[in-house]
Amino acid sequence: MNFKLSKEPIVIQEVIDKVVKRDAGAVTTFIGTVREMTKGKKTLFLIYEAYEPMAIKKLEQIGAEIKERWPEADTAITHRVGKLDITDIAVVIAVSTPHRHDAYEANRYAIERIKEIVPIWKKEHWEDGEKWVGNQLETVPYPSGKPKETDIHD
Amino acid sequence: MIKVLLFAQLRDDLGKESISLEGNSWSVAELKKKMTADYQLASLETVMTAVNEEFADDDTILSDGDIVAFIPPVSGG
């Protein structure tokens, strides 16, 4: 169960433990958290919704893609669903490899792919309203291939 | 029978999580057209489609028992 969704707060150490191995010299973790201010607008809380069976399949696919590109890498990803407050952890990605360079690169690859192909949506709640992010071109759909450079830096 | 799953804004717009339709041999494009007309949806053009939990293009032909999901631009992470 290296790839899962969680209705409960994510325990970072549990995700890391899944990729710890004797021939690893590096474990990188990415921890995505709920940001309060986006383009001057204050978020109160978020709701994450997922198409769960497909989301898990797509997380597994990302793990397989990483294995193809970095054969010695092991990956674990847990994404939260439900209501999250500011600073709560939305996603944890852990990647272990023999050397640090690959661990950083593969981890970056995982988060960019999550933003492309994993069916998870967030609804932002503000003081003056709410909106599903992604429905007003705040994100760009690109179901296959690599993310464009502009999307990577978003 | 084809089951259509709805998420995010589409779920809010239609007020339901899924819709079942009698129909067969439609393409994904035809299903999108029918849904847009029947439910007065703004547009399904930027929405990706999954058939049985795998991304599918507009030419994919649907068969009885398929589960279709409309996937608005995703925003996880």
Which characteristics define this entry?
heterodimer, A: 154 residues, alpha+beta, Aldehyde Oxidoreductase, domain 3, five-stranded antiparallel beta sheet, four-stranded mixed beta sheet, 30% helix, 36% strand, B: alpha+beta, Ubiquitin-like (UB roll), 26% strand
Kindly describe this structure.
The complex is a heterodimer of chains A (154) and B (77). Chain A contains four helices and nine strands, in the order βαβββαβββαββα. With 154 residues, chain A is of the alpha+beta class. Chain A has a single domain, classed as Molybdopterin biosynthesis MoaE subunit (Aldehyde Oxidoreductase, domain 3, Alpha-Beta Complex). In chain A, the strands form two sheets. In chain A, strands 3, 4, 6, 8 and 9 form a five-stranded antiparallel β-sheet that branches. A four-stranded mixed β-sheet of chain A has the order 1-5-7-2. In chain A, α2 runs antiparallel to α3. The C terminus of chain A is likely disordered. Chain B is an alpha+beta fold and 77 residues long. Helix content of chain B is 25%, strand content 26%. The longest helix of chain B is centred in the middle third of the chain and has 12 residues. At the A-B interface, β4, α2, α3 and β8 of A face α1 of B.
